[in-house]
Amino acid sequence: MPDVGYLKRVLAVLLTALLAFTVLDAVPRADASGSLVAHGSAHQVWATGLPANAAVQLVNAAGHTVASQHATAEGGVLFRDVTPASGYRIRKIYNRQLSNKVTVHSDASTPWTTSFYNQPISSNGYQYLTTRDGTQLAISVHPPTSPADLPGLPAGTPLPNAGIPYTPPYPTLIEYSGYGTATPKGPENGIATLANLMGFAVVDVSMRGTGCSGGAFDFFEPLQNLDGYDVIETIARQPWVKGHTVGMMGISYGAISQLFTAQTRPPHLSAIAPLSTIDSVATTLFPGGILNTGFALAWAKDRVHDALPASATGGQPWAHKQIQDGDQTCKANQALHGQAVDLLAKIKANSHYIPATADPLDPITFVHKINVPVFLACQFEDEQTGGHCPALVRHFTGTTKKWFTFTNGAHVDSLDPETFNRWFDFLEIYVAHESPLVSGAVIKAAAPLIYQTALGVPGTDLMTLPPDPIQLKATYASAKSAFEKLPRVRVLFDNGAGQTPVTGLLDPQPGNPYPGYEHSFSNFPVAGTTAKSWYLTGGGKLITDGPGWGATIEKFTADPKATPRTNYTGGTGTGGLWGNQSQWAWNWTQRTYGTQVSYLTSPLKTDTTVLGAGAVYAWVRSSKPNVDFMATISEVSPDGKETYVQSGYVRGNGRALSTSTNNVLKQASTLLEPVLSMRLADVSPLPSDHFTKLPIPLYFQGHAYRAGSRIRVTISAVNGDQPIWAFANAQPTSPATVAIAHSASMPSRLVLPIVPGLSVPTARPDCGVLRNEPCRTYKAMSNRSYPAGG
């Protein structure tokens, strides 16, 4: 038997030690090794200046340990998800040294103090701006008198300015992103240069945790939004800022950040102008519930790399150069970069819809909070953010001053000449509060140079801006009045088929970003839109007079590896995806027999304009419990050419539709816009012994199918039909046999949004000129058909 007396003595010693440790835990201690300064933030506490990899604890006002972790190799530590309260301290474990007491705040936008908004910011050059929690953000200010050099031009190349003597105070724009935005050498894309030439000062801001900015990176955490608020309020107070209000502008990342920041309603924000943005994370990262390992995952991996402490092997190269050149602030700001959230792990953990995680990251859930004027432009075939941005229109209910432009095209086409004109007018009126008359002359003179060097579009003599009636208004009041009479929604059709506005000269390169024609509307979806159905039937036909009564089954082999992903294979242009590269080098491949089913309408009797979303509904059964499906819509013209229009996606076991508006798109499912549940609880294997209804939501399109053309729908496994969208983890991992039924009881069909009564030019665009709508010779592909029950 054990010695009971001995056990009692040991227990007494342990209890005494535990009591002593508890007392020590509650009593602040310090030593002579130097002060430890903590900072309270929004649900966070952070500190720098710690020993490398030091073990530390966060303790609350009662002295109890809340969390423990190690500092980075650079001596920074960050505690996340901290409950708002006062009295928190950071404690070094090895010597029990305690920091000062700090307060942890909520993520409400109201500043904890406003005194820091009075910090002086120079009107020119690279510098740092301090936010509410003490984090320093790297910024570069480009005044209009010193426009950033156009990429590819020698430093100091004179730019046309029509002799305008720009003097402060300047109308001012903020460009805010996680790229190398604040780099001292000048912005990484041409949009800041455009704004400089328009007479705006531009403040380029690098998000916390990136480049030379302090803090730790997390994808659009609330604190990033508060930083945007603080930047706006600080810059607006500077004596060189006209009217002490600022606007925001930017494309892609710099567009998305505007939506996140503007929802916080900074008092001195005058307007936002996001270009090529997203409506939700899911529609780019998980189209149809399938992980986009092409652009989206690669983009996320780049963000992980860029958030590392700047060095020769990680972080942003410009920040490493700053440190090598002696920038001690940049060096010190790397201390928390190692505390960045693991974005890839976050993506993996949220492969299904979890409202608490997804909703704060989806603009569609919060743009109703934005109360300033908005100009937004997106492309239906955007090869990066995707073609779902138009879903935002109905959610911008917080402002009556809102204008939207949509077109076919690539990611950069939100800066096409027609869209650029309206973007420019908007910024002049709602940020500069001036008529665009004078600055418009500057932009027109600079346009050929801009489009060649900044955007990679060739044809320097002819690539210019079309006439714009708003820019002819002599006064601000008349320009504003005319602009506010414009319809809210503008759709540019046949982008790439238009001609240069230079009178008497032919376009040097068909496919340059000019539309063939346009239509405008008061809202979107357009009033009067009808859902037209074409039913899948035997012989690969799409018919309009009902599904028929004879059941037919057609099969294909679903193999995501059967077709290589569509990609760029060469071509002309200097800008890659930012120029005409996407136009001429999109290698749209044909699928092999048996790896798809294809259906074709009869020649259309009249011009048919499709504008909106749409869907394919297929009754399927599968030899495998999960198959990732893609539906592609194309136009087959009478001359035997086939033009890509749009695609849609769905993961077979995630085919369940939402039964409410509490979903990723915050809208109820309709025939034209089925909304997938994307919840883990709704996952259901595809049946192998009977047919089930499979909805494939299509991304938005704006396309005129001319009379005589035929509409084609192709259903297959994913991969192969859209550039830089790829699905490396697609299901099934080995080929599956998929059967599609069509009968009166199983009406498989294509449903498209038709807007009746719209005029369409009779000239059919040449094969290959439509922006991001590649064209190839049509190849008829018969389906493998079987009788009912086969």
From TrEMBL:
Pfam families: Peptidase_S15, PepX_C. Keywords: Hydrolase. Gene3D superfamilies: alpha/beta hydrolase, Galactose-binding domain-like. GO terms for molecular function: dipeptidyl-peptidase activity. The keyword Hydrolase applies. It comes from the Bacteria. Residues 489-751 form the Xaa-Pro dipeptidyl-peptidase C-terminal domain. InterPro entries: AB_hydrolase_fold, CocE/Ser_esterase, Galactose-bd-like_sf, Xaa-Pro-like_dom, Xaa-Pro_dipept_C. This is CocE/NonD family hydrolase.
